[in-house]
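Put briefly, the fold is written as integer tokens. The lines below illustrate.
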Amino acid sequence: MKLKILLVDDHTIMREGLRALIEKDPAAAVVGEACDGAAAVKLADELLPDLVVMDLTMPVMNGIDATREITRKHPDIKVLALSMESDRYFVVEALKAGASGYLLKDSAFAEISEALNTVVRGETFLPQKIATLLVKEFLQCIPDEISPTFESLSPREREILQMVADGKNAKEIAFQLGTSIKTVENQRNAIMNKLNLFSIAELTKYAVRHGLTPLK
């Protein structure tokens, strides 16, 4: 059975170009076209396509609102958002509205085909450019103080943390490092203070979480 696709864009030439590209795939068929969001919602009700390729900026009803309405009424219908905009706002709002992917209008045919197949499989598709943008913005939004880092420790403190996580007690660590038990205990307490941790168990969990020692 062919994949049924509904094309939604307010530019006729864009719909015609997409139709020509999509129908190169013998497993896909364009079953309808709409030039605004309201018409898209109506056609989705009538045609029940497998996938809607949805432009975001259109008259009458924009693509984000249309996506929200279609996915609310028909959870099984996948929506692939289509836009010239690579701005984070458009990407996030489209995905929040229920879109399963986001595709830029200047994409090559190979990427369009990949996007269609990815979304139909129930996965999320984002072009590399968009994915990189979102990751960078996400990392910039994480306050440094949220999670004390391994880099805040001195080389000796890192070494001791590694040995604590490996299950060695203060006496064993002192013997291995050629120092006193008291010195090891003081350094261990300094590590806890820096990382805002309060027990050996928490130190071990921290080490596992940061890849310093394997989960036993």
